[in-house]
């Protein structure tokens, strides 16, 4: 099947009451782990590349690794829909570069601007992308936390206004919209009890029927990985994510895409740390990165089946 856009994928997810996992990729092992989980569970999948990943791994490497993963799946008789998506595109130029290089979906993040400027920037990207058969995700509202070293303070976070969301989509023509209902970037999402504004999500879905909504900052930060990291020399006390039952509820509503990044980082790091401590004689990267890749595959499989509900939906 090769690379596809999210259009048909989201239509089916909305009607079926499930969400597609959008997993951030940075290297070969992460891509392999995610794709192994998706193929085993016959699930559609979104592989997304952030500005930080482009800087770290080089856009050409990442694109070729994604293409290689699809080719390997096809050779094994597996044919699942895969989207290559730009996560948090900071400007028109970055979005244009990704569109021109073969991405099938891009996100333009104008949430840091005022409403009118966000509309103008998003519309510019939408016009360029749609002419080339690429879909566009936009964002309205501000999430707290850290995304690729860009920190948004809790005091600057802002819930999405449903009225503005309706106007924004009509003015820009974007294909999906990331909204702020209480999730946040990074591994420290909640200091007290986790709470999401499902009332906002419900109101947005009423104003924008059949329109796909996206949740950013939606890693659940599995405590087993946090504990492993700390046990084997890490220092990440108090890390806390979005409870998985809340994500599952969101997936049954209008949320068609759920972003997951921190959970992948934690799964990899926990298993690498464990290997270094328990097997100090190991210096072969294939050993500890192999364990990390297996941990990613198991974690993503769990998300697909138990949280997103998109298994056997390919």
The 3D shape can be described as globular
* Total of DSSP H or I helical runs spanning 4+ residues: 12
Span from first to last CA? 11 Å
Average pLDDT rating: 93
Q: What is CATH's topology name?
A: TIM Barrel
CATH class: Alpha Beta
The main sheet comes to: 8 strands, parallel, barrel
Residue runs with pLDDT of under 50 for 5 or more positions: none
**What is the CATH homologous superfamily assignment?**
Aldolase class I
Secondary-structure element series: HEHEHHEHEHEEEHEHEHHEHH
Rounded to an integer in angstroms, the radius of gyration calculated over CA atoms is: 19 Å
The helix content, as a percent range, equals: 40-55%
The portion of residues forming beta strands comes to: 15-25%
Structural class: alpha/beta
CATH architectural arrangement: Alpha-Beta Barrel
Q: Care to describe what's here?
A:
This protein has 314 residues and is an alpha/beta fold. It has one domain (7-308): Aldolase class I (TIM Barrel, Alpha-Beta Barrel). 48% of the residues lie in helices and 15% in strands. It has twelve helices and ten strands. Strands 1-2-3-4-5-8-9-10 form an eight-stranded parallel beta barrel, surrounded by ten helices. Helix 5 (92-100) links the parallel strand 3 and strand 4. The radius of gyration is 19 Å and the shape is globular. The N and C termini lie close together (11 Å). The mean pLDDT is 93.
């Amino acid at each position: 099947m090769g690379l596809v856009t999210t259009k048909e994928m989201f239509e089916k997810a909305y009607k079926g009451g499930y969400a597609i996992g959008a997993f951030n990729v940075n290297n070969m092992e992460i891509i392999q782990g995610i794709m192994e989980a998706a193929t085993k569970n016959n699930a559609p999948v979104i592989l997304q590349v952030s500005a930080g990943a482009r800087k770290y791994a080089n856009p050409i490497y990442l694109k070729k690794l994604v293409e290689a993963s699809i080719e390997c799946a096809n050779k094994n008789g597996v044919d699942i829909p895969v989207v290559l998506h730009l996560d948090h595109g900071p400007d028109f130029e970055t979005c244009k570069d990704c569109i021109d290089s073969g991405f099938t979906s891009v996100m333009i993040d104008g949430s840091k601007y005022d409403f009118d400027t966000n509309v103008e920037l998003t519309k510019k990207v939408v016009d360029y992308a749609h002419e080339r058969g690429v879909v566009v995700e936009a964002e309205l509202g501000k999430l707290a936390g850290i995304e690729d070293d860009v920190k948004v303070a809790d005091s600057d976070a802002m819930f999405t206004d449903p009225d503005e969301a309706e106007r924004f989509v009509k003015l820009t023509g974007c294909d999906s919209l990331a909204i702020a209902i209480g999730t946040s970037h990074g591994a420290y999402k909640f200091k007290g009890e986790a709470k999401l504004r499902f009332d906002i999500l419900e109101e947005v879905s009423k104003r924008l029927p059949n329109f796909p909504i996206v949740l950013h900052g939606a890693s659940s930060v599995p405590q087993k990985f946090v504990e492993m990291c700390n046990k084997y020399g890490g220092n990440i006390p108090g890390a806390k994510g979005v409870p998985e039952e809340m994500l599952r509820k969101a997936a049954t509503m209008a949320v068609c895409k759920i972003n997951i990044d921190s959970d992948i980082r934690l799964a990899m790091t926990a298993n690498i740390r464990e290997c270094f401590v328990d097997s100090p004689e190991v210096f072969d990267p294939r050993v500890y990165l192999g364990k990390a890749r297996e941990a990613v595959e198991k974690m993503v499989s769990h998300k697909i089946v138990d949280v997103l509900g998109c298994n056997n939906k390919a």
